[in-house]
Design brief:
Elements (H helix, E strand, L loop, with lengths): L1 H19 L17 E7 L6 E7 L5 E2 L4 H10 L21 E9 L2 E9 L2 H7 L7
Antiparallel strand pairs: 1-2, 1-4, 2-3, 4-5
Length: 135
Amino acid sequence: MRSLTVASAALLALAAGAVTAVPSAALSTDGTPPGEHAVFLTVSGDANTWIRGVLLSCAPEPSGYHPFAKEACADLDRVGGDFDALPREYRICTKEYAPVTVGATGTFQGRPVDWRKTYGNACEMEASTGYVFRF
């Protein structure tokens, strides 16, 4: 179990390194590295039994490997980067307790982001976070 936590930390450290180590040829149109406008998003299962992550860049335009980058950036823009205010979708979810933890680390609209939240299950998480954690 501990090795999974260490592996999760290593994954986050690698992502942080990827965000800051950008060659000068990769500068965005405003002259800043893409990492200056990127947020590394993670979703993990109960007790870190699994984890996945993706880098989302919203400036100068939505990009990255997020399957819904345009929609996720629109959701974040709509709430000014406040992850606690992401659009809620009203849907029926079971009361099954299978906790899912989401996290965001990086920079959004020039402000540092370091946010985490645990939901009771994946349905509750998807209903509470719009497109941001749908990957």
